[in-house]
């Protein structure tokens, strides 16, 4: 029944899941999310705040976090794990031959392409930046790919160039122009001899000579995914690779033939949306099937299994489709972020939820069923993972006599949620000239009136007073104070007021803005406050563990309003055309009535007056006739 309910949701559920999978956002930009190779021990992803977070899939906790120094101007656009290697974690005692054991290779280096044209190499063993590769790209880096054997890295950029980096020296080893368009995807063959690059046209390069080996055309949009599906050499007609493009619901499989007759794709896999994350188990022979797991932009997982042995005319449907929802009576889809296949055909490692707080889980899926729906309580899972996380923030223990000092504003010394004690009385200083709340509210009224020009009073209320009033209104939950503060329309005053708020008042302000959004006549004003909060306090909001629950109501409210915008625009256009036609009809009726009245007046004139009308000196109406026509026109317009 739950699967049927999710399928009955139709396109609306797919759109919601797609937007949730992109985290509101943005939107069209896909956030990088990649599992580490082989053991799948780590999950690396970049969220909207620009930070690299590495999660441990075994303990389901945050392992490491890296904040690039220029993460606001150099957004991370792509992530790629390097080949597993032996990592020396520190000085160790030299062991005897009898004590020698085989050292396990672990995933260590992680390459991050940025919008500024640089490539950052991060080391998980060191927990710090290993090196920075820059100076070769003049545009943003769209894709990075490691060489499977040598210490080489390839990067594609908007400047249409491919750069081969030598990680031992940290310098450019080779650079060549790939195409006339931006390079959006790269893939190195398992043997390290061939390189696939794509913009709109897919090209296969010989890495020894840096010359084009083959060209493949068939996508109308930019190619976002390239994967080799087999490990067989290209001279045996057994080399296959697959490609996916933006806004394309098909994965195309291409065969590299020895005779060069490989102009069209041989197999197509049907999807429900644009592919976002792909994992596959390559085929080593014709008798071995290719296993494929594709997570689409709508948050669904599709599993395929196919023997690659020549062309297939009909597009192949997934053998199993996996969706996830919550445990409520009316199920809401939970977006899947990434998925990797296990050694067993039934085992899949899933990452779902939000990029800020993902949930990792290894599940067994019954692939005999075409549609599988997994139900999870995301809030309970998040709370359990947060309890097991080792926090580095120490909470001080204070007693009743301790005095708490919090970052605040000039003139505001009380904590936001401090308990008031009845035994302590507030001392009043007769020499101080600090304004009371009533005086500040009066100043707001005075400044509002002076903006409209109705009064010439001078407003002496400063931004600090606005911030203090806002904090006091949030503390006391006083609607009158909040309404007075929210009435301001000056963008600069709003920005400075929000910038001066203490961190403890940010979340109450967001909740108040969310509540006020329900009132349609106040929504336009609240947008300015929400914009200022997101500009100044995004990093603080992203650090909150329960951000998804706090901003969930606001997100869905904004989403519903945006969906109605297109319909309202159509209605506005229709009303404009209707009013234009009505006004045109009114003008034509007015002119016809005026001409009729003038004709009747001319007929009632005497013969002498008619002779005067026919004289050449009659070039205008007399004042009396003009006034009569004007009066009749005004009466007619009043009727309408």
TrEMBL record:
Protein's UniProt keywords contain Nucleus: yes
Organism phylogeny: Eukaryota, Metazoa, Chordata, Craniata, Vertebrata
Pfam families (UniProt xref): Utp12, WD40
Protein name: Small-subunit processome Utp12 domain-containing protein
Listed GO biological process terms: maturation of SSU-rRNA from tricistronic rRNA transcript (SSU-rRNA, 5.8S rRNA, LSU-rRNA)
Region (Disordered): 409-433
The Small-subunit processome Utp12 domain, residue ranges: 477-578
Keywords: Nucleus, WD repeat
Location of this chain's protein in the cell: Nucleus
Natural source organism: Astatotilapia calliptera (Eastern happy)
WD repeats, residue ranges: 134-175
GO cellular component, one term: nucleolus
């Amino acid at each position: 029944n739950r699967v049927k309910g999710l399928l009955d949701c139709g396109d609306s559920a797919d759109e919601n899941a797609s937007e949730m999978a992109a985290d509101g956002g943005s939107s069209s930009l896909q956030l990088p999310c990649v599992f580490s190779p082989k053991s799948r021990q780590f999950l690396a992803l970049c969220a909207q705040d620009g930070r690299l977070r590495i999660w441990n899939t075994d303990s389901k906790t945050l392992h490491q976090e890296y904040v690039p120094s220029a993460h606001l101007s150099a957004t991370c656009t792509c992530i790629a794990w390097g080949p597993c290697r032996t990592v020396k974690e520190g000085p160790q005692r030299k062991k005897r031959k009898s004590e020698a054991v085989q050292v396990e290779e672990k995933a260590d280096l992680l390459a991050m392409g940025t919008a500024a044209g640089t490539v950052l190499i991060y080391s998980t063993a060191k927990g710090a930046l290993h090196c920075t590769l820059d100076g070769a790209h003049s545009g943003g880096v769209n894709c990075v790919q490691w060489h499977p054997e040598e210490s080489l890295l390839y990067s594609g950029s908007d400047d249409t160039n491919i750069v081969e980096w030598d990680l031992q020296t940290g310098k450019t080893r080779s650079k060549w122009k790939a195409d006339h368009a931006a390079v959006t995807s790269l893939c190195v063959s398992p043997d390290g001899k061939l390189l696939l690059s794509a913009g709109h046209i897919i090209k296969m390069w010989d890495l020894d000579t840096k010359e084009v080996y083959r060209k493949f055309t068939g996508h109308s949009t930019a190619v976002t995914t390239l994967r080799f599906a087999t490990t067989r050499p290209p001279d045996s007609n057994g080399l296959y690779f697959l490609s996916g493009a933006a806004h394309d619901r098909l994965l195309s499989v291409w065969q590299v033939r020895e005779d060069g007759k490989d102009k069209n794709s041989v197999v197509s896999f049907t999807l429900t949306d644009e592919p976002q994350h792909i994992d596959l188990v390559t085929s080593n022979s014709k008798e071995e099937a290719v296993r494929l797991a594709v997570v689409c932009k709508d948050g669904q997982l599709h599993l395929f299994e196919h023997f690659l042995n020549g062309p297939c005319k009909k597009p192949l449907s997934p053998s199993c489709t996996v969706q996830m929802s919550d445990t409520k009576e009316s199920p809401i889809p939970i977006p899947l972020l990434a998925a990797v296949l296990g050694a067993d055909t039934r085992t899949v490692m899933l990452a779902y939820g939000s990029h800020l707080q993902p949930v990792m889980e290894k599940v067994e899926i019954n692939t005999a069923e075409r549609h599988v729906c997994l139900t999870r309580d995301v809030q309970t899972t998040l709370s359990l993972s947060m309890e097991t996380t080792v926090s580095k923030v120490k909470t001080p223990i204070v007693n009743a006599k301790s005095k708490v000092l919090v970052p605040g504003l000039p003139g505001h010394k009380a904590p936001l949620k401090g308990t008031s004690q009845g035994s302590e009385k507030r001392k009043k200083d007769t020499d101080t000239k600090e304004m009371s709340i009533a005086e500040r509210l009066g100043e707001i009224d005075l400044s509002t009136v002076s903006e409209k020009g109705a009064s010439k009073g001078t407003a002496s209320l400063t931004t600090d007073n606005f911030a203090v009033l806002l904090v006091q209104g949030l503390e006391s939950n006083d609607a009158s104070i909040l309404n007075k503060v929210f009435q301001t329309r000056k963008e600069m005053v709003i920005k400075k007021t929000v910038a001066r708020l203490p961190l403890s008042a940010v979340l109450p302000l967001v909740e108040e803005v969310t509540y006020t959004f329900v009132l349609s006549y106040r929504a336009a004003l609240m947008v300015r406050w929400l914009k200022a909060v997101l500009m100044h306090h995004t990093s603080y909001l992203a650090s909150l563990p329960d951000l998804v629950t706090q901003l969930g109501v606001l997100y869905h409210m904004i989403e519903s309003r945006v969906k109605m915008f297109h319909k309202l625009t159509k209605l506005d256009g229709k009303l404009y055309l209707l009013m234009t036609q009505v006004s045109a009809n009114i003008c034509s009726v007015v002119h016809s009535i005026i001409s009729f009245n003038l004709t009747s007046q001319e007929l009632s004139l005497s013969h002498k007056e008619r002779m005067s009308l026919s004289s050449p000196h009659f070039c205008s109406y007399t004042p009396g006739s003009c006034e009569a026509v004007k009066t009749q026109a005004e009466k007619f317009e009043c009727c309408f």
